[in-house]
Amino acid sequence: MSIAEDISQIEIQEAALRFKSFGEADAWALGSQMRAAAEAAKLPLVIDIRIGARQLFYAALPGTVTDNAEWVRRKSNSVLRFHKSTYLLGRMVEQRGGGFDQSRGIDVMDFASAGGGFPIHLEGTGVIGAITVSGIPQRDDHGFVVKQLCIFLKQSHSELALGPEGE
């Protein structure tokens, strides 16, 4: 897929993968599902689910390092500030050229546009939190979150998945 096709598909993902309600029990159920899937696939992921700054679920699986937690923090900050998935932000920056940095008023020590952060969008309310992973290549981080959200929300993953990365 081209950058433009990725952007279009990620916007479709964000429109489809929304919640009617979301609370502590949902965070635990989704996070536990994600942890089990990552363990089964032997993925070295940090998984973080939060509403605002309040962390509701956190897991660091074998193979992760301290830096993965830092990436999760920065990606979550980006989702909460821009109300978009971090992979969408990164693809948009790549399409425009330039960087996701102080020239755009962004401190790269606190924000990241690498894939793996996805908004918790409550229907009728808006973005209230973030689901974030770090540990594998950014497109795969994003794809893992999307697949797990599709399972949790009973959506068709085949219709929402990104195709192979293109130019």
Describe the protein in words:
This protein is α+β, with helices and mostly antiparallel strands and 167 residues long. It has one domain (3-158): 2-Layer Sandwich (Beta-Lactamase), CATH 3.30.450. The chain contains 6 helices and 4 strands. Strands 2-1-4-3 form a 4-stranded antiparallel beta sheet, with helices on both faces. The termini are close together. The mean pLDDT is 94.
Placed side by side, the strands forming the largest sheet appear as: 2-1-4-3
Instruction: Provide the β-strand percentage band.
Output: 15-25%
Give the C-level CATH assignment. Answer: Alpha Beta
Gyration radius, to the nearest Å?
15 Å
Question: How would a crystallographer describe the biggest sheet?
Answer: 4 strands, antiparallel
Mean pLDDT: 94
Low-pLDDT ranges: none
**Count the helices. How many?**
6
CATH topology: Beta-Lactamase
Task: Report the structural category.
Answer: alpha+beta
Strand-and-helix sequence, N→C? HHEEHHEEHH
- The overall number of domains is 1
- Shape call: globular
Return the CATH architecture: 2-Layer Sandwich
Distance between the termini: 7 Å
Helix amount, in percent? 40-55%
Identify the CATH homologous superfamily: Haem-degrading domain
**Tally of extended strands?**
4
